[in-house]
Amino acid sequence: MQRLLDEIQPSTSDTIIPLGDYVNRGPDSRGVINTLIKLQEHCRVLPILGNHDEMMLEARNNRDALDRFRYDGGDHTCGSYASDAWFYADSLRFVPESHWGFLNRCLPFHEDNDCIFTHASYDPFLPMKDQPTRLLRWTSIAMDAPKPHFSGKIVVVGHTPELYLRHYGHLVCIDTACGFGGKLTAHEPATGMTWWVGETGVRKQRADV
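The structure corresponding to this sequence follows.
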């Protein structure tokens, strides 16, 4: 993620909208959240809450939820916070309050004059403030992409992994399977510019037309 930010080089006038799933299926969830917290010092950051982030919040004070969280990749997250105390690597006791605060401040969606940003999916017939949590954070678009939102705005989502960016005209999915050995992708709807960064350090960019 730091390589991707270095490639984009956001300025103080830019807005970055991370689409969620900052934790799980990676060796350094702690580092991801640290990076996003520091990024807020340099530009406007509007983080969206993903389903894995929601699971982490639920796991904080609930043992059953913690077990579910660990089963779905949370072991990596717990370990990233307890790296100096491996015998506590099955708990979230070392997560600092600043990180809980970051997760609690994450948004269910962001909507501006032209676009809507959310983690997973949406109901095309409902205003965003009335969208069910299940759709915003848990519903895959793999089998059936939703129709255009009634607002006419382009919707940008993640959650459903594939090896390439998918552009349906009214909907853009930028989850390019980073958690499964793919790439991490950033997309700028206003210009169509897209950045990819893989684990090997290869960087590519192009403008969609």
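Residues 166 and 173 are 5 Å apart (CA to CA).
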